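TA notes, week 10

Several of you asked for a full example with nothing omitted. So below is the full record: structure tokens for the whole chain, then the designed sequence directly under it. When grading your own attempts, check the secondary structure regions first.
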């Protein structure tokens, strides 16, 4: 069993994790015509907004209640009410996602009751807008937990409860935060190739996919999951959750509506993708389409071509728990060794399945201390200084990636994504290996030659 080593430092050195509110805001950004609202100070929102904009290279409609010193001491419900009413009057969104921060959570206010009172007293003004609360203090958890809490809150608040008439071709997909825009879009296309309809919550492929609205400025998200589709999640015949952190939302959906769920802890690799395709085939009652079978054959060929470059390589990874598991199982499946594994929080059950001797809960400073002698560093853009100091190539994954373009359009899942991942990593290895010199190939380079100054000796025979 993998040993989970707790964090021992009282301060983070080059932080690895992003906060819970940011993860919740990212999930709300996957809903059409929505606005995430940080209940906290302007500074809390500014840091999150900068990271989101630099990562996606898009305009992000993130708002704040702008708590000041007086409101922090006396209570911030007036600020929350004012912010919600302003958003309603100015942008008229279908959804306002309230994400609490450490500033207001530390005071211990009853946000659920306060928000219920606002909805009751302002029912006429707020008609037509769903308001969802996600309790996401910064002082615990990370982006993974924030994402899952927001999805759970949306299901609890919006989805109609009770058994409903099932639509035989409709399935609900709950993707993990670590799936890129391209991953989510590819999952949808794969599901549709079986004649099924996927309702994806949240759906970043519709809202943060790099498109430009038609000659107009939109103050809310302009793509993603429709609120109506969230309401009708109970009509799906099957729910598919991707990532261990999405188990809780899937369980809530099953409890409220009776929709059964299947959990995939990763969709990267041949085995996990085979299981996913088999499930889709069973639901639809049809065999895998020819293009899916062809992609599988391409992955098999890539596995044969790529394993020569992975064998014996030492990999150092720093990522959120589910992404750490996804990448670590990919690398070990290709014959590499996980030399160092660092994650953000030790509460996830998936960490026990990470194929490494131990997992350190910590930061990028811990990764740098453990990664000496590794062949590849795998983490987000904040790991670039450590990679430079260690002289190790860096593969950028996760959030944030702000010093490269197109990170959200890279595939990492299913047959095609796994194939592309093999090629990307193998190319990094090839670009950083050095050709041997004639001197290094000389078999006598370390042999001691006799001293030519001494006269030769001869035998009598």
């Amino acid at each position: 069993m993998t040993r989970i080593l707790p964090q021992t430092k009282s301060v983070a050195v080059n932080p690895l994790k992003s906060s819970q509110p940011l993860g919740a805001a990212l999930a709300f950004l996957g809903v059409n015509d929505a606005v995430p609202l940080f209940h906290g100070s302007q500074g809390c929102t500014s840091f999150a907004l900068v990271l989101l904009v630099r990562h996606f290279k898009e305009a992000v409609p993130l708002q704040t209640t702008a708590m000041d010193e007086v409101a922090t001491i006396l209570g911030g419900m007036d600020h929350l009410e004012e912010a919600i009413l302003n958003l309603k009057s100015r942008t008229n969104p279908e959804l306002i996602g309230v994400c609490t921060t450490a500033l207001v959570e530390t005071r211990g206010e009853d946000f659920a009751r306060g928000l219920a009172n606002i909805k009751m007293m302002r029912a006429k003004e707020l008609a037509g807008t769903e308001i969802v609360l996600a309790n996401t203090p910064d002082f615990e958890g990370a982006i993974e937990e924030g994402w899952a809490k927001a999805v759970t809150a949306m299901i609890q608040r919006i989805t109609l409860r009770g058994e409903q008439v099932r639509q035989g071709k409709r399935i609900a997909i709950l993707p993990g935060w670590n799936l890129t825009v391209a991953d989510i879009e590819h999952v949808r296309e794969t599901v549709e190739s079986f004649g099924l309809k996927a309702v994806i919550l949240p759906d970043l492929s519709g809202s943060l996919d790099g498109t430009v609205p038609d000659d107009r400025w939109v103050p809310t998200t302009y793509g993603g999951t429709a609120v109506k589709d969230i309401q009708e999640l109970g009509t799906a015949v099957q729910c598919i959750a991707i990532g261990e952190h999405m188990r809780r939302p899937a369980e809530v959906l099953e409890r409220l509506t009776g929709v059964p769920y299947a959990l995939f802890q990763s969709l990267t690799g041949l085995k996990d993708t085979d299981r996913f395709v088999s499930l889709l085939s069973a639901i639809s009652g049809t065999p895998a389409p020819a293009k899916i079978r062809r992609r599988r054959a391409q992955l098999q060929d890539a596995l044969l071509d790529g394993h020569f470059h992975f064998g014996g390589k030492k990999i150092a990874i720093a990522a959120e728990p589910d992404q750490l598991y996804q990448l670590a199982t990919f690398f070990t499946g290709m014959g590499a060794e996980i030399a160092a594994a660092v994650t953000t929080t030790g509460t996830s059950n998936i960490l026990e399945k990470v194929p490494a001797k131990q997992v350190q809960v910590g930061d990028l400073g811990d990764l740098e201390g453990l990664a000496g002698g590794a062949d590849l560093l795998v983490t987000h853009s904040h790991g670039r200084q450590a990679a430079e100091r260690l002289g190790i190539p860096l593969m950028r994954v996760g959030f944030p990636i702000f010093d490269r373009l197109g990170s959200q359009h890279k595939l990492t899942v299913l047959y095609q994504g796994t194939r592309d991942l093999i090629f990307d990593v193998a190319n990094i290895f090839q670009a950083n290996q050095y050709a041997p010199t004639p001197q290094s190939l000389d078999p006598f380079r370390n042999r001691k030659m006799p001293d030519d100054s001494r006269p030769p000796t001869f035998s009598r025979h």
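The longest strand covers residues 167-174. Use that as a sanity check on your answer.
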